[in-house]
Structure formats: structure tokens, C-alpha cells
Amino acid sequence: MFRKKEKLQSYINQVWRLFKVALVMMLVLAVILGNRYLEADAKTTMSEQELDSSLLSLSEVYLPGTIYDKKDNVLMFGSEPGKLSWMSDKKSNSLERLIGGTDYIKAVETGNVRMTILGMAPELLGESDSRMDEKSLFHPNQRRIGGNVKLTIDADLQNFIEDLLIENGYMDSSVMVSNFQTGEVEAAVCLGGDSSETVFSRKFHPASTMKLAIAASALEYDANLANFSYTCKGNNTFTLDAEGKETVSVHCSGGNVHGTLTTMESAMAQSCNGYFIALAQQVPEEILRKNLKKFGFDDVMHFGSFKFNDNTFMGESENAYDLVYGCIGQGQASVTTIGLNMYTNAILNKGVLAEPHFILGSNDKREEPMKAKTQAVTRQMCTEEVADSIKNMMVKVMREGTGRDFAVDGVEMAFKTGTGEEGDGKTQTLLVTGGILNENKPYSITVCLNHINGGSSVNAGLIAKEIVNRLVTEE
User: Fold this and answer.
1) In this structure, are strands 378-380 and 371-372 parallel, antiparallel, or unpaired?
2) In the chain, is it the N or the C terminus that has fewer CB atoms within a 10 Å radius of its CB?
3) Are 138 and 52 in contact (CB under 8 A)?
4) pLDDT by 10s per residue, the chain, length 475
């Protein structure tokens, strides 16, 4: 009887040991499969609805991680589940817009969280955190903390630009500074308008900055158009129909009469409206619109962290009037601050747009080292030869044209100016976009001043000049 009990006990012990081994193996397998699933899931771009749902769910459980700027300054940290607090009392209002605020639930309610840092970096709220590891399995009620994120943004530069705009009274304005070789965004300031408006959503007529894309599209079609000749009469008339019965008159800014312009370069320096409408008419409309799509006009551009489709040339319009005025950045033509900055970057970077990005690195958990974000997306907007031609025209704008009043001594700059008429017929949008031609400081700058009564694009240029001075003098 005793031996039977002993054998039974031995048998039970063996079964128990096998059960424990099987349990451990199942846990290990679950961790492996769970991690693989999460890794695969992280590589899949979530829809807006999925992202919203995920962030709302995680905000109930996770304390957000810490947000750093490019210089490792702490900007914000998780203060309670789903909420962030500023490290400093002097916060940047425009930076808070870009980040998406301090409350995940409110950020999702805006309906545009994907275009904010909170949406671009869901790892801040533990999206990539494995909930299948041993610690989580055996301690399900533990406090969960999201990962950290390091931005490309230079907070000092962001604050400098924001203060500069406010000091000059430009309360409805936006500025973007980026590295045109790498796509890293150094500053993205947006003031005025809706409280959730950012460089992604601030829209305006591109005005004469549209001439950069028109010129590039024309040269892509026929390089000989670099020597296209046109006589500007100040008030230039163009036909809208094949019979020539319907016409439209387009004047040049300030009533200027530019006379005969024998090269595209000289027309760009003088920013002649008549010239660029006539130039566009040398290109079949279908090809013109196709070439403009490469610059993001009436097209969708997909990037790793966001989708962009906010630059418009004519949209759905087939109106000849919109075609004429679109060539000088009016009519149906519109861009956002980031959209204008993107095609500026491509022109300055041999025709190649490096993916614009706001995040340098991140981790899934606070204690882990940061992993650099890989930015593999590029877009060829035009050939290198065409880009260099347009860039040289922008250099001439600074030396001989509309940019002379904001040139910086000793710094080679390439910019284009623009003055757009706003819908009320009274106020204007003042623009400059371009960059510094220095291998060590390859920065582009786009400045947009909205709802200005009086002044000229030089106002925007003087803001750009201050930014250039800061960038070239900073170590």
C-alpha cells in the first residue's frame, strides 16, 4: 500500500514538473509571438480612426514619456495618465500646437491628431510597449509608462522666431525652418487663426512663390524655355478661349512695367506676372499639370509619419481663368506652410525632397536607449539640372531683384518673394521662401505673414533675414 502511494506521488510530481515546463514554454512562445505581432503592427501605418482609438485607450493606462528637443532640453513630461506638463513656465504656444497640447483626449477630439507630435510618436503613450513580457504578465496592475521622444525642433530657435513675430506685430503668421538636405524640421511656428492650426493646416495663396514650380515645370518640358522672351506692358492681356473672344487682364505688382524680358532668370528676379503666365502657355496644359503634381500640387504625397495632399493648383476646376491665375499663385492655387517649404527644399537639394520629419529618435520604455528614426522616403520633384537652374534664379533675386532689401552681407542666399491678394480684397499675404547656400548650414526658411494691410514681401524678407543672422552666427 505504501509503495503504491509512493509511486502515485512520484507520478504526480513528474506530471507537475512537465506541466511547469509546458507552462514556461507557452509563456516564452507567447512573448515571442506577441513581440513579433507588435513589431509587425508598428510597421503598419494605422488609419486615423485606429490611431484615435488606440490613443484614447492607452491614455487611460499610460503615463506619457518625456519629450526632448534636439539639444536634449526637456520640453514636456508625463504628469498623469494621458497628460503632459511643461518643464518650464515659459512655454512656446506655437510648439504646444505642434505637439498637440497637453491632453491626449483633447488632442484626439480636434480630429487632426495625426498631424501632431502626439500622433506621429504614439510610443510616447506606450503604443510600441510589449504587454507580453514576464513583468507585465505577472504584474498586470503595475503602473505603465510610455517611451521618450527626441524632436528635431530647436526649442531656442522656435522661441526666438515666435518672439520675433510677436514683437513685429505679426500675430497671424507662420514660419518654418528645416534642413533641406536631411528633411529635419528645426522650427515650425504658427500664430493666430484657430488654436489647433499648425504649419500643416495654415493655407494661403502661394502668390509669386508659385513661379518656382511653374518655371521648373516649363524647364522639365523644354530646356530652351530658359530663353523665352516676353514683353511686359504692366497690364497684360491673355485670352481664355480658342476664339480669343474672352480675355483677362493681369497687372504686375505695383503697376510695374518690366518691358522686354529675354530670359526666365531676369523675369524671376523682377517677378513679372505676365511673363510666367505666358511661359506656362508654352507648355501643353496636361503636361504642365502633370509636372506640377511632382511638386505636390493636386496630388498626394505619402511619408512615414504623415500623408500630405494640401497643395492645390487648380483642383477640380477646368476654368481657363483659374489656369491663368494659378500660374501666379492666385485663383484656386493654395499651399500650406509646410507644402511651400517642401518644394523649396527640393529645389535647393538638387530636385530631391528629403522626407520632412519632426522626430530624431525614440524608445518604447524610459529606461531603454533612444533609437534613431530612419527617414527613407525621398521624392524627385524635378531633375538636378532644372533644380540648379531655379536655385540660380533665386540667387539672382537676392542680388538684383526683389530680395536685395533683406540680403545678409557675406551669406549666399537663394530666395523668392511673393505678395498674395486675400479674399477680402483689402489685405495681403506676404511671403518669402528660400535658404542659405552653405554646406555646413543647409537651412531653408519659409515665412508667411497673413492679413497684412500695406507693406510688401520685404516685410517677410526682413523676418527671414533675422533668422538667417541667428542661424549663421550660432555655433
Assistant:
1) unpaired
2) C
3) no
4) 545 556 566 666 666 666 656 665 665 555 444 444 444 344 345 676 777 788 888 888 889 999 999 999 999 999 999 999 999 876 778 899 999 999 988 888 887 788 899 988 888 888 766 554 555 545 555 668 889 999 999 999 999 999 999 999 999 999 999 999 999 999 999 999 888 889 999 999 999 999 999 999 999 999 999 999 999 998 999 988 877 778 899 998 878 899 999 999 999 999 999 999 999 999 999 999 999 999 999 998 888 777 788 899 999 889 999 999 999 999 999 999 999 999 999 999 999 999 999 999 988 766 677 788 776 678 999 999 999 999 999 999 999 999 999 999 999 999 999 999 888 788 999 999 999 999 999 999 999 999 999 889 999 999 999 999 999 998 7
Count of CB atoms situated within 10 Å of the CB of 431: 32
Segments in 60-154 forming alpha helices (H): 93-99, 104-109, 117-120, 134-138
Q: What predicted TM-score, i.e. pTM, was given to this entire model? A: 0.87
31-40 long-range contacts (CB < 8 A, ≥24 apart) are: 31/130, 31/132, 31/133, 31/134, 34/130, 34/131, 34/132, 35/130, 35/132, 38/128, 38/130, 38/132
Residue type at 135 in one-letter notation: K
